[in-house]
Amino acid sequence: MLIIVVLGLGSAFIYGASDFFGAFAARRVNLITATMFNYAIATVVILIAIPILGGVSSSAAIWTGVVTGVLAVIGLLAFYGVLAIRPMSLLSPVIALIQSAVPVTVAAVTGQPLSVMAWVAIGLAVIAIILLAPPPRKGGERVSARGALLAVFAGLTLGCSLVVLDLSPHDSGVIPAVWEIVVGLAVLVILWLAIRWSPARTGALSFLQPGDEAVRTLSASRAWTAAGASGLLTGVADAFVVFGLHMGNLAVMSVLIALYPVVTVILAATILRERMTKLQFVGIALVIGASLLLSAA
């Protein structure tokens, strides 16, 4: 179980940093453009990984990767849209909680075996995710209806993408991750072309545009650097996830992956000066405890 915990937490921490930089870039650059650049970098990373990590290509590996790619890119766009709306430290854990609930439910219904200690650890991790998203303080930033709806949608689609990816053959290696990223990039290119050619039809996608305040406070060079860093991290994290799912339990991996708000919250506190509460510190402590329990399970 230790290697599963390492892969799960590793992907969570990398995703947390990737999502932060992706949302950071979305405040200055058109969201579709920034995410497309993210996926282009991730594609290069995952293609380089093929001869190193390997994998057997099959119809099952391809279709699971394709379906995962469509679900993941849609969920990621909604996710970045949510984080660009803010408050980042509140909405990120909400998405993670919904995202982890879908695979955990599937794992429980399908009867995937887990020890009592592992289920206790999963429960602690879920509580940790909840504590990472405390109610907004009086007079502070509040969640808008648009942000809440996008958060639910992002969580559901990202959770479903993990369920589908878990169906990929165990000998497929990084092949499903390759298809996931390539298909995601293709979807983004199609969306980018559609928006570029038909600007009058983009009213429903207004959240893809950065706010005026963001444009004034973030330089384009920093935004593109953040988008590139996000893509590099996404490629590495995807490789971690697919190997973790092949080696471990869907419920364990999904909950560990959903701990990425720890990194997002810390980065938001240190870089964006968003305040961390005592409950968030308790949540981080529970993350450590849950990880130790899973390692011993």
Descriptive account of the structure:
The protein has helices at residues 2-26, 31-53, 59-85, 88-109, 116-131, 145-165, 175-197, 212-217, 220-247, 250-257, 261-271, 278-296. The chain is mainly alpha-helical and 297 residues long. The chain has one domain (2-296). Helix 1 (2-26) crosses helix 3 (59-85), helix 2 packs across helix 9 (220-247) and helix 4 runs parallel beside helix 6. The protein is globular. Mean pLDDT is 78; it is low at 206-216.
Structure summarized in a few sentences:
With 297 residues, the chain is mainly α. It has helices spanning 2-26, 31-53, 59-85, 88-109, 116-131, 145-165, 175-197, 212-217, 220-247, 250-257, 261-271, 278-296.
List the helices and strands and how they pair.
Layout: H1 2-26, H2 31-53, H3 59-85, H4 88-109, H5 116-131, H6 145-165, H7 175-197, H8 212-217, H9 220-247, H10 250-257, H11 261-271, H12 278-296
Helix pairs in contact: 1-2, 1-3, 1-9, 1-10, 1-11, 1-12, 2-7, 2-9, 3-4, 3-6, 3-7, 4-6, 4-10, 4-11, 5-10, 5-12
Question: Any key phrases for this structure?
Answer:
297 residues; mainly alpha; 12 helices
